[in-house]
Specification:
192 residues, mainly alpha
Length: 192
């Protein structure tokens, strides 16, 4: 199983220390680039997210969604399933197997392709959820950036594990924030 996750099976697996360093680098660099781009574009991502969450929490409360069911959903879907499915699909299958091995594309081009597809895939959130166009665009930009950094790390570290761990941590933190925000919302609107 471990060799399945390697970028180049002729090279050794990274050490635990290298995995930790690459995981931290993936998280820091992805989020830093996102913040810098938002600043350069004049987009206040926190303001967009706050408005989005208020609408989302109102809808969830109307539908009777409990914080516990939200927490379980965030843990299983956003924190475990999505990172595993997306890292395997985009970095391993699309970038490594299809673009590099089958089509024999340059790794840099393959990385740009998989990150672009990964980002574009997030545009569907505007169609299938209550997300606003602004929030969906921010999520798409964030996905493209993290996909690009994750693909680079996969190649340089020779393992999918740092990108997978970074994805799990990122989604887990977002999910935890979502649950805490919803609990606070329900408390502040308990008389409604």
């Amino acid at each position: 199983m471990e060799s399945f996750l390697l970028y180049d099976t002729s090279k050794p697996s990274p050490s635990l220390r290298e995995i930790v360093i690459w995981t931290c680098a993936t998280l820091i660099i992805s989020n830093l680039i996102f913040v810098v781009l938002c600043t350069l574009l004049g987009v206040n991502s926190q303001s967009s997210i706050k408005k989005e969450k208020e609408t989302e929490y109102t809808e969830w409360k109307k539908r009777g969604i409990s914080p516990w069911s939200l927490a379980v959903s965030e843990l299983l879907n956003s924190t475990i399933y999505a990172p595993v499915a997306e890292e395997v699909t985009f970095r391993l299958v699309l970038m490594k197997i299809i673009c590099i091995q089958k089509l024999q594309l340059d790794p840099t081009l393959a990385n740009i392709i998989q990150a672009s597809v990964f980002g574009i895939m997030h545009l569907s959130n505007n169609v299938y959820t209550t997300q606003s166009k602004t929030y969906t665009n921010l999520q798409t930009l964030s996905a493209f950036i993290s996909g690009l950094v994750s693909g680079y790390v996969y190649i340089k570290c020779n393992s999918l594990i740092p990108s997978l761990l970074a994805h799990i941590i990122n989604n887990g933190a977002a999910g935890l924030s979502e649950v805490i925000g919803y609990i606070k919302y329900r408390h502040s609107h308990s008389a409604d």
